[in-house]
Design brief:
This protein has 160 residues and is an all-alpha fold. It is 51% helix and 0% strand. Helix 1 runs antiparallel to helix 2. InterPro entries: LEA_1 (IPR005513). This is 18 kDa seed maturation protein. It holds the Pfam family LEA_1. Belongs to the LEA type 1 family.
Length: 160
């Protein structure tokens, strides 16, 4: 599995590098075209020189951004090959483990498929239907409409 993971990381890096090069090339082309337009409308040699300098600065910036992107891509590939996590579920970009197939609730027992049992918070206690309340019968057994019985866990039954 590790060689496949390394190959996938390498392919991702190559694709990202191609994207960075394409973006850099487009920025360079835009800078060149803008310089040509500015040189055509400029009447003063100083303005023409400023247009050329602006173009060179934009080209240098595009090249710099391409190199930074390549370094980041290489670092990301090395992390992936080393077995580090690449999933980020955070706005900060921090990596970690996925939470599973679904979002879990912050409430106790919710999303786990299991009853919460006794959760004491303040004076009021609530129990989902069929939860063992510790009294020997379930709340479902006290509901005359459910047809539930004593003890164990009720299902809610049919409405009568």
């Amino acid at each position: 599995m590790q060689p496949a993971k390394n190959a996938a990381a390498s392919v991702k890096e190559t694709a990202a590098n191609i994207g960075a090069s394409a973006k850099s090339g487009m920025e360079k082309t835009k800078a060149t075209l803008q310089e040509k337009g500015e040189r055509l409308t400029a009447h003063d040699p100083t303005q023409k020189e400023m247009a050329t300098e602006k173009k060179e600065a934009r080209i240098n910036q595009a090249e710099y951004e391409k190199q930074v992107a390549r370094e980041q891509n290489a670092t990301q590939r090395q992390v992936t090959e080393a077995g580090g996590g690449t999933h980020s579920y955070s706005t900060t970009g921090a990596t970690g483990n996925p939470m599973g197939s679904h979002q879990m609730s912050a409430l106790p027992g919710h999303g786990t498929g299991q009853p919460t049992g006794h959760v004491v918070e303040g004076v009021v206690k609530s129990h989902p239907t069929g939860t063992d309340t510790g009294t020997g019968t379930t709340l479902a057994g006290h509901n005359t409409k459910t047809g539930g019985g004593a003890g164990g866990y009720g299902t809610g039954g049919a409405y009568r």
